[in-house]
Amino acid sequence: MDKERLIIDKFSNSFIGDDGAVVAHERSRWVYSKDLFCEGTHFLAGWLSMEEIARKAMLVNLSDAVAMNAKPKFALLGLGLPKNTSADQISALRKGFADICDEYGVTIIGGDTIGSDKILLSVTIISQLRGKAVLRSGAKKGDLVAFTGELGGSLKGLRTLLNGGRIAS
After folding, report:
1. Which of 126, 108, 146, 121 is nearest to 56 (CA)?
2. What residues form DSSP beta bridges with 72?
3. Which residues form the PurM-like N-terminal domain (predicted)?
């Protein structure tokens, strides 16, 4: 059993889905999802610009909501930034988040910022469920599986970067 599954099992309850928690409130059902995007784990310094880091962090989270059949509405951001982060880098980070939020109709409604040794981004997406929640755990043989991009493309890009190469953004 991997550590993520072990942790999820320790906190298991009726709300937890595959990519987000489904919560009923009055007449609406909401999906809450969160991901972390951390320097040294998900990317290395110099691989991406601050704008690209923010865009990727937001897109990863939006995809979780969409995969569950939910329309992303709101985002909460947690930012851990090194002391030497410049005003221009912060502006680029803001632009990356804002561009994706504008494109997908998402409003950033708050969050928190701390000092950190590395760049750490936490994104929480609050989405409105469109009908029935789609969970990976409900998949069965014969179901249609859809994907975007090229299968294996992420691994290919990672290997290129680890070998000192560059990839197109």
Report:
1. 121
2. 127
3. 17-126
| pLDDT tens per residue across span 102-134 | 999 999 988 889 999 999 999 999 999 887 766
Residues 6 or more apart whose CB falls under 8 angstroms from that of 167 comprise 157, 160, 161
Burial of 157 (0-12, 13-18, 19+ CB in 10 A): middle
Over residues 47-96, the pLDDT tens digits come to 889 999 999 999 988 988 888 888 999 999 999 999 999 999 999 999 99
User: Residue 162, exposed/middle/buried by CB under 10 A (0-12, 13-18, 19+)?
Assistant: exposed
* Domain covering 19-131 in this structure, CATH number: 3.30.1330.10
d(CA 76, CA 58): 10
pLDDT at 135 over 70: no
For the whole model, what pTM was predicted? Answer: 0.74
Tell me how far apart the alpha carbons of residues 86 and 119 are, in angstroms, rounded to a whole number.
Answer: 13
Residues 55, 43: Cα–Cα separation, whole Å = 13
What are the residues whose beta carbons fall under 8 Å from the beta carbon of 64, sequence distance 6 or more? 19, 20, 33, 35, 125
Per domain, the residue ranges of the chain are 19-131
